[in-house]
Write a sequence for this structure.
């Protein structure tokens, strides 16, 4: 894949040039087949972990994988505009604000053997900043071209850790303007609930059941753009074995195919709705 400096990625967007690129430092990737009224994001898809941090980290590779969102980029990769993180959230979390993006502890366990050196933190924070500079450029261009933008903020979650029945899909709407966008969110929830999954799997969908949509990706876009709706969309990890890391390819492929249909349909509904 082509590697580009962030300045060139942003210039391509400003000039409406289609491209596929990996940031020069490999921290995130952007794919633009053409400029569309919607964008897909997968901020927690990444798994790579900087070698200079390995000696500090108390979590195993599996423990990091368990809390990441594997396959979320793959599920939306065919769509015309996709931005996704490549680094593990254990280096820095793109769904947290800058001041909280580097964990001190994670899910009840201390993360670092010793405090991280300031130069290591600086490298990670520069990556976080670059990702959001590109995100700003993408949404700015989409609003410029279409008057408004729809962002699919894709995540997954570990459903087995819950001690109750939880939905296949959770849509977090606590930080969107529900007076303007509530019906759009409900139509997305309804679409996801209609998904036909393999075998005995059943697609259920709820709003603000397991998560409320408190992530920084959603908040950053919502606070900076008046005419953009972010749909924070979480799929339960029914597509893998949470305990072993085995990926169920048939489930991933089925979800991907149906999102290929559902996402453009939801974008059309959004474009036809008066804000």
């Amino acid at each position: 894949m082509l590697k580009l400096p962030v300045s060139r990625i942003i210039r391509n967007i400003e000039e409406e040039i289609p491209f596929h690129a990996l940031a020069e430092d490999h921290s995130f990737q952007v794919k633009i087949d053409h400029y569309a009224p919607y964008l897909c994001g997968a901020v927690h898809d990444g798994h790579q972990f900087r070698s200079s941090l390995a000696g500090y980290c108390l979590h195993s590779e599996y423990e990091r994988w368990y809390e990441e969102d594997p396959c979320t980029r793959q599920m939306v990769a065919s769509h015309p505009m996709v931005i996704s993180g490549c680094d593990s959230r254990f280096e820095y979390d793109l769904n947290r604000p800058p001041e909280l993006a580097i964990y001190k502890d994670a899910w009840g366990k201390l993360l670092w053997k010793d405090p991280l050196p300031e130069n290591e933190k600086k490298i990670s924070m520069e990556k976080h900043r670059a990702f959001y500079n590109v995100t700003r450029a993408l949404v700015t261009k989409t609003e410029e071209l279409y008057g408004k933008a729809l962002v699919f903020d894709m995540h997954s979650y570990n459903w087995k850790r819950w001690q109750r029945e939880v939905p296949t899909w959770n849509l977090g709407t606590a930080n969107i303007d529900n007076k303007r966008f509530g019906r759009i969110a409900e139509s997305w929830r309804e679409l996801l609930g209609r998904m036909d999954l393999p075998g005995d799997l059943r697609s259920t969908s709820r709003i603000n059941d397991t998560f409320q949509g408190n992530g920084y990706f959603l908040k950053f876009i919502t606070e900076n753009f008046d005419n953009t709706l972010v749909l924070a969309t979480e799929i339960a990890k029914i597509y893998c074995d949470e305990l072993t890391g085995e990926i169920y390819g048939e489930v991933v492929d089925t979800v991907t195919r149906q999102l290929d249909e559902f996402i453009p349909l939801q974008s059309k509904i959004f474009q036809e709705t008066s804000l």
Observations:
- The helical segments are 6-14, 51-54, 61-67, 72-76, 118-146, 178-193, 216-224, 249-271.
